[in-house]
Amino acid sequence: GVIIDTIGSPGSINKLADNLLDSVAGKAGADKIPTLAGVYAETAYILDKQDALISFDNYFTQKELDAYIPGFLNEGRFNANNDLLLFPLLKSTELFTANETDWKPFADATGITIESLKTKEDLTAAAAKYYEWTDSLTPDVKEDGKALYGRDSIANYIYAGCYQLGQAIFDVKNGVVNMNFNRKAWKTLWDNYYIPFINGYFGAYGKYRSDDAKIGKILALTGSSSSVSFLPAEVTLEGDVKHSISMSVSKDLLFKDAMIDTVVQQGGQLLSFENFRSSAGRCCRVLKMVHRK
């Protein structure tokens, strides 16, 4: 068997990454270098520049690698040699979720249903209508309309949005990053997030948009599939007034002119170090155990 011992201090993802880099650098007071480490890609890029990582290609047969979804593995191939330096552990994507219960009065009044939203442009138009409708409910108070929607990651919106519209912001070839900017794509991004946000049609109030949904600040959101357990089953309004709700969950919306059907894939991955090449076989046994069907 294989005995697994965890090391490292708890903290945020950034703190854990910093601790790992300190360990590899041999800084005083740093934790010892782990045999396996869970990281995001940006940390692996730094470590690869230091020639600190092993390639998992040397410890898996082609048949074993072929059993994985190619995109899961390809994310771990980013250096000039196309080595498999990161092995997938957990993956997530983004989902569009909406409060069906509190959406119904809006749908009854305007005819705009959750199902009628086919594109991000549809969502933007619906959010403007929702703001106007909620504003009209209090005629004695001007411009107190409510936001319909919010999203957790603006970076994902920009990156995936540009790719949908036919132009990735950057691409990496042989370890070299090339930047691309498309004015038309960026204008579409601006019109469908920043303009509605400025006007109050979209909103962001708490740390996460699921927090906003729990207190009725928004009805719909785009968030990570890994956070579905945090979606609300009830809404708490002012005065601690609560009511139960049902939530719809679907694939995140595309742009009207999307050329490529694209959603974000992200998540933690594992790497191992040249220092432990003699233990690499045991590391890979652990990976195969974790992923065993």
The radius of gyration is 23 Å
Q: How many E-type strands?
A: 11
Give the helix/strand class: alpha+beta
Strand content: 15-25%
**If strands are numbered along the chain, what order do they take across the biggest sheet?**
4-7-3-10
Put simply, the count of helices is 10
**Gap between N and C termini, in Å?**
18 Å
Overall 3D shape: elongated
The portion of residues assigned to helices is 25-40%
Mean pLDDT: 91
Give the CATH H-level superfamily of the largest domain. Periplasmic binding protein-like II
Describe the fold and architecture:
The chain has ten helices and eleven strands. The mean pLDDT is 91. It folds into two domains: 13-91 and 267-290, D-Maltodextrin-Binding Protein, domain 2 (3-Layer(aba) Sandwich), CATH 3.40.190; 94-251, Periplasmic binding protein-like II (D-Maltodextrin-Binding Protein, domain 2, 3-Layer(aba) Sandwich), CATH 3.40.190.10. A hairpin with a 3-residue loop joins β8 (234-237) and β9. With 293 residues, the protein is an alpha+beta fold. It has a four-stranded mixed β-sheet with strand order 4-7-3-10. Strands 1-11-2 form a three-stranded antiparallel β-sheet. It has helices at residues 13-25, 41-49, 62-66, 70-74, 100-110, 120-136, 154-164, 183-198, 209-214, 280-290; strands at residues 36-39, 87-88, 94-99, 149-151, 170-173, 176-179, 220-224, 234-237, 241-244, 247-251, 269-272.
